[in-house]
Structure formats: structure tokens, C-alpha cells
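Task 17 of the worksheet. Students: predict the tertiary structure of the chain below and write it out as C-alpha cells. Keep your answer in the requested format; marks are given for formatting as well as content.
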Amino acid sequence: MFKIRNIITISDYVTVINIIFGMLAILLHDFRFVYISIVFDALDGIVARKTNTVSEFGAELDSICDVVSFGVAPAYLIYYYFDSTVSIIGSIIFLIGGALRLARFGILDVKHFIGLPIPAAALFLCILTQMSLKYGFGSGYVVSIIAVISGILMISDINYPKYPKKPLLVVFGISIILSMFGVIEPLAICAVLYVLYGIFKMKM
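Model answer:
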């Protein structure tokens, strides 16, 4: 008999924390929980490699958690804050792009990401939505366009780096912490630069 308790590892518990925060983002309508999910999504891979507990079960669990935290949660949040037909369309396209991106990732074994990773797409969409709400420069149409662009980038053939250099990770970590206190501008810059990096590198 296939018993979960016999195969679940410490890295899988970290993965489960990812989906918990993703669900909290939906229930509490709070972008910050998506950002926290991104942290735990990165940590589960690190823990799996450090403890030599990389497994097919863990990979499947990670994808399921990702589609909730970085697909459903961002899609729902833009609908919640911009309740309109156009935001529904943007949400659906983003979610479809995320699901296709995760399905492709599951069957590829490459040293770089092909297409914008779904956590990065979720960050890009959520932080720009949060910026538009904070400064009032956007609308449901603008945010929906960002959602559509994110969905397209996820299923594109653009290459993105898997592991940024340590100084960049430190900057990103500090930006995540600042976002917890409402200082979202540094995190927005990080998200935009990462998205643009792949696009401009492709053209070079």
C-alpha cells in the first residue's frame, strides 16, 4: 500500500508551507503571502538537495503547490481587486499559461528555465498590481494586460537563469522583507529587471 507517511520528506513539508501561504493569499486577499510562498518554493529545492531527498513525489507535489500559490492566487487577486470582465479574461489567461508552464517544466531537464518561471510571473503580476493600487496609476485593463503578458512569457521559449548570483539573492531577500512592511518598490524593481533580462538577452 502506498502510504504518504513513508515517503514524505522534510523538503516536502517545506513545499506544503508554500501552498499554505498561497491559500492564505486567496482567503485574506493579501499579496504578501504570495511573496512568502516564493521564499518557501525556493527553500524546498535547497532543502531537498542538502538532505539528498530529491524525489519524483516531491517534484509532483511542488508543481501542484505552485499552481495554487503562483497560478490560482495571483489570478484570483487581480479579479478581487479589479472586478470586471477584462480582469476575468486576464486571470484565466494567466492561469492557463502557468499550468502549461509547469507541465512543460515537469518533462524537461535543462540547466536554465525555458519561459518565465511561474513564481517570477506571479511576483511580476502581483507586485505591479500592488503598485497600481498603491499609486493609483493602473486600472483593470492595465493589470489584465500585465497578466496576459505574463501568461505569454511563461509559455515562450525565452531562457531565464535558474540560480541568480548570491549578491542578487541577498538583494531579493531584503526586498521581500521590505515588502512585508509595505515598502514594495525594491521588489517591483527586482521583478521587472528579471523579466526584462530574459527578453533583452534573447535579442542579443
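Marker's comment: The mean pLDDT is 92. Residues 4-203 form a domain with the Four Helix Bundle (Hemerythrin (Met), subunit A) fold (CATH 1.20.120).
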